[in-house]
Structure formats: C-alpha cells, structure tokens
Amino acid sequence: MRTAHARGSYLRVHFKNTRETAQAIKGLKLKKAVEYLEAVKAHKRAVPFRRFNGGVGRTAQVKEFGATQGRWPVKSAEFVLGLLKNAESNAQVKGLNLDKLVIRHIQVNQAPPHRRRTYRAHGRINPYMSHPCHIELILVEEEKQVERASKAVVVPRLTKKRALQRAIRAAQE
C-alpha cells in the first residue's frame, strides 16, 4: 500500500471547527474532498457538527450527511486544503496515481493554547485564549475491489461423541 503524508503543527485555527471539518472529508477521494472544501468556503455546502455542536445552528445543507447542525468553517477549510495540496505534492513526487488517492487517515489534536488577556470592569483581567491544533493526514492509493467468494456450504463440525453416535447408527442400518 503506497501512501503520502502531510502534517501541520501548532496551526492557529480553531481545534473544534477543524476536527469537524476533518471528519467530514475522511474517506473521500482527494478530488472530491478538495471540491467539497472549496464549496464550504463558498458557503455552498456545510460541514456537519456532530461532537462539538453546542449552540450550533441548524441548516438544510447537512441533510446529505444525516445531520441537522452545521456551519461553514472557512479558515479550517483553508488550512485543511493547504495540507491536502501538500500531501498531493508528496504523492506526485512518490509517483502515485493522483486520481486514485483516498484520505485514509486524518487526525486533529489540540496544541498548547496561546495566551492573551482581555480587560474587564473594575480593573480585572481575564484570559483570552486561542485553541490551535495539530493536523495530520495520510493519502492512500485506492486498491481495486476484490469480489467476495461465492458462499460455500458450511458443514457443522461434530464432536467426537456425536461422530461416534452417527457411526454406530449408520452401522446398525
């Protein structure tokens, strides 16, 4: 199995949005994933939010995924598109067939937060954190589907006792 990898570390893009974007394209062919993310940037198709979906609005665009809540995380889509482009270049250098590439693995992990501060009433200060992430993905050349063998008749295995009983019965007949 021939693969191409791409990885981005400490990317300043929201972890939660990027995780949902990654789950939406997992398992897609490379060309389909790129088309989908371009459509997300243009607000033509939405990303379904399944895990981090508190307070996320509903949209009809996520019906194709069997979900009700979705958004259009443009910045996440741009970062993931950049990684897909990098992985495609890596695959091209390795001599892989670009039309058969499938996103087999894509993972988004939380990176350490960046600290800023915001000033509140009565001279107080609160944290103003960003939630960056690490993204890694693996593209795999899709292999041709192997047909399932025709169903063979399975004969149940007999215990020694049952086999002896059948042998005795057969001898008596």
Please write out the topology.
Elements: E1 3-11, H1 15-25, H2 30-41, E2 47-48, E3 70-71, H3 74-94, E4 101-110, E5 117-119, E6 125-127, E7 133-141, H4 160-172
Antiparallel strand pairs: 1-7, 2-3, 4-7, 5-6
Helix pairs in contact: 1-3, 2-3
In short:
This protein has 173 residues and is α+β, with helices and mostly antiparallel strands. Helices cover 33% and strands 22% of the residues.
Could you characterize the architecture of this molecule?
The protein is of the alpha+beta class. It has four helices and seven strands; from the N terminus they run βααββαββββα. A hairpin with a 5-residue loop joins β5 and β6. α1 crosses α3 and α2 packs antiparallel against α3. It is elongated.
Name the overall outline.
Answer: elongated
Q: Output the radius of gyration.
A: 26 Å
Distance between the termini: 58 Å
- Order of neighbouring strands in the sheet with most strands: 1-7-4
What labels describe this entry?
173 residues, alpha+beta, 3-stranded antiparallel β-sheet, two-stranded antiparallel ribbon, 4 helices, 7 strands, elongated
